[in-house]
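Researcher: Next sequence.
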Amino acid sequence: MPHPRPSKAERIQPKLYDWERTPSRKANEPSPIKSGSPMNRRHRSKSLRTLIVDDFQDAAQSLAELMRIWGHSAITARSGHEALQSWRDCDVILLELVLPDMDGCELVRRIRDDSTRVCPFFIAVTTEGQDERVRRGGEAGIHLHLVKPIDPAVLCGVLDRFSDLIASIPSK
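Model: Next structure:
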């Protein structure tokens, strides 16, 4: 009997944190993740406040759980309007470009137009990977465009570098 096609959540759910759930290893046992890997990095320069915007709740919750495992705080929003109410204290916004109430690029434009706050770092984590969509996202102000299913190591590395950058900025 053929296996049923995995759901969207099963396709994007990362397998990377299985090592977090394994019993403690002896000191001489190798880590399943290379020691130089960004996912094995325990100390971050700064814990990031993240907002995950995705109308697919399982995807948003899975990504939020990853953020927490990596030491960042995470909140979720299921629509553009909900994100507009929630973004103000965030360092990073990870967003799906296809939302039920507005285009993700429009959401980014609205946030960038709010001159009362410092703009967060925008990462599109989306099913939309066409060149035209990536170009439009860049014009709207999206800093990085990742197509689902994402490689968790890539996202973790990007967030680590951004965390280091934020930590290097002198506070006022």
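Model: Helices lie at 8-12, 18-21, 57-69, 80-86, 104-113, 131-140, 152-168. Residues 6-43 have pLDDT under 50 and may be disordered.
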